[in-house]
Specification:
Number of helices: 14
Largest sheet: 6 strands, mixed
Shape: globular
Radius of gyration: 21 Å
Distance between the termini: 58 Å
Length: about 450
């Protein structure tokens, strides 16, 4: 491919560790006997249950309705009986309410499942379908997609970017999706561009995935206004602001959103989920999960029903190898460590990492030697060492003055720090305190 390679300032180059799964085709995991579907799987308002214990449900039936505009419905990922609605472990929230379904093994489709034609749907119908299908960002953030596709009228969008970077080490779910289902990715992009009235679209992929670049380029060859772009392999190349700068040269302002520079970014998995919802009528009830790390017997890419417990997914990969030192939902840089395997796969679960002691080991932190490597690595051009020092002292006012809220929590600073200081962790604390202060101040008015 003769495409120019695009990038951004800063970032780091962690070991990829993708070799275990990058060449493994996606396998469809058999649905378990019980699934646990959390009422909240996205940023925004949680859902109210539409069913009660004892009810029978069909595959794809809506079982939870969000309480606000920034929310997405949830659906039954198996057909069967509602066994319970109860509090249980949640992979991103610690705890949450989940609807427990007992699978009858029949996969009986709900009557609402009706295939549609992208070309025949108008903008409002497409947007409504995306909402009703419960589509959220599949890259991990899980922001409701219909909200992202409804920018204010004063924000003119002229570019759509599909994020196929998958820059997190270990993860290969998006890579396999682009290789095995390129048409879904392309059809999803077509639907997004139609909703936004945009004529310029990009699919951005890191240059360590040349086979995906070729496959997607072939699939888009006849699409006017759509271009595949090569990104320099560097973490966090998939972060929205870095991706937008690399592809368009536009800089999202401090505190701003991609729509402020006329861009909407979606993950390739999100686009594919939109296409499948349109073409099959089946809402978002299943996703690809990379299951890997030295602590799992047979690393795989699995297509998993939403609500499947991590322990069932790991069992489908041959089980554990010894006692794992750490289990992470997502990638190692921005993922969330889990305290139990009794947590369900949700819409934003891109990976399950089972790390050995050697893989998970981090040295004890030492004093800052003022080398400045964290400043060079920060893709947001912040000064992590000073923000961190203020945060550790409880001086959140000065942390905010140094733009702590602009931190994207990518973890580059902690990764590159030779003293192994808890930089991103302390900045995350500062952000949480600053946000809480603002919330209380707004509530006091």
């Amino acid at each position: 491919m003769g495409l120019k390679v695009l990038g951004f300032r800063g970032g780091v180059h962690p070991f990829h560790r993708k070799e275990s799964t990058q060449d493994k085709a996606v396998e469809r995991m058999q649905a378990p006997r019980l699934v646990y579907i959390p009422l909240q799987q996205h940023i925004g308002a949680p859902c109210e249950p539409l069913v009660k214990p004892g009810d029978r449900v069909k595959l794809g039936q809506k079982i939870g309705q969000p309480k606000g505009f920034v929310g997405a419905p949830i659906h039954a990922s198996v057909s069967g009986v509602v066994k319970d609605i109860k509090q249980m472990p949640h992979p991103t929230m610690g705890q949450g309410i989940a609807i427990v379904l007992e699978n009858d093994g029949k996969d009986e489709l709900d009557e609402s499942i009706v295939p549609r034609d992208i070309e025949a749907l108008d903008v409002d119908e497409l947007k409504g379908l995306i909402f009703e299908a419960g589509i959220v960002g599949m890259g991990g953030a899980a922001f409701p997609t219909h909200v992202k596709l409804s920018p204010p009228k004063d924000k003119k969008i002229d570019v759509v970017i599909l994020n196929g970077a998958e820059c997190e080490p270990y993860l290969t779910a998006d890579h396999r999706l682009m290789l095995e289902n390129p048409q879904d990715v392309v059809d999803g992009l077509k639907a997004i561009m139609k909703v936004l009235g945009v004529e310029r679209g990009y699919i951005a992929i890191e240059d360590n995935k040349p086979d995906a670049i070729r496959t997607i380029a072939e699939a888009t060859a006849s699409m006017p206004g759509v271009e595949v772009v090569r990104l320099r392999t560097k973490y966090p190349q998939g972060a929205e602001k870095q991706l937008i700068y690399a592809v368009t040269g536009r800089q999202v302002p401090s505190g701003g959103l991609p729509m402020d520079v006329g861009v909407v970014v979606n993950n390739v998995g999100t686009a594919a989920a939109i296409a499948r919802a349109i073409k099959t009528g089946i809402p978002l009830i299943e996703r690809i999960v990379t299951v890997t790390g030295g602590g799992v017997a047979q690393p795989k890419n699995l297509s998993v029903r939403i609500g499947t417990l991590f322990k069932d997914v790991i069992d489908a990969c041959g089980g554990l190898v010894g006692q794992p030192a750490k289990v992470v939902s997502g990638g190692p840089m921005m993922g969330i460590a889990q305290y139990t395997l009794e947590v369900p796969v949700i819409k934003g679960t891109s990976g399950i990492l089972v790390l050995t002691k050697q893989e998970a080991e981090t040295p004890d932190p030492g004093p800052c030697i003022r080398c400045g490597k964290c400043v060079d690595a920060c893709p947001m051009r912040l000064m992590p060492l000073f923000i961190s020092v203020y945060s550790l002292k409880g001086d959140y006012d000065n942390s905010e003055k140094l733009h702590a809220m602009d931190c994207i929590e990518c973890g580059c600073c902690s990764y590159i720090c030779p003293a192994k200081r808890p930089l991103v962790q302390s900045i995350r604390t500062a952000k949480r305190v600053i946000t809480e202060r603002k919330r209380r101040a707004a509530g006091a008015k």
